[in-house]
Model the fold of this input.
Amino acid sequence: MELRLTPPTTVGVGAPRPARLPGLEAGAGAAAGAVPEAGGFGQAFKTALHNVSAAQDRAGRLQTEFQLGNPNVSLEQTMLAMQKSQIGFQAALHVRNRMMQAYTDVMNMQV
Done:
């Protein structure tokens, strides 16, 4: 038995389409009304990383402004921004670690 995986980006006009699994057709399952975004998980992860980076930049700017004595920036506001960026970074790191573990598990599977 031959098992061949075809990435979705290499499926062309004349290429055979990969077989669909039963129950995964449109309208099947609990998420029948859910429409996946065009980018999928990769795009969602990329957007999340950009959001984490923006939160870290904002926290850094607030730290600098607070240290320079800007009266419009409070210690509470600065600490809250720092904690938000830290939580976002930790969440992104956990997702990356889970993805790497899943990749390693799949690569170590015997076929």
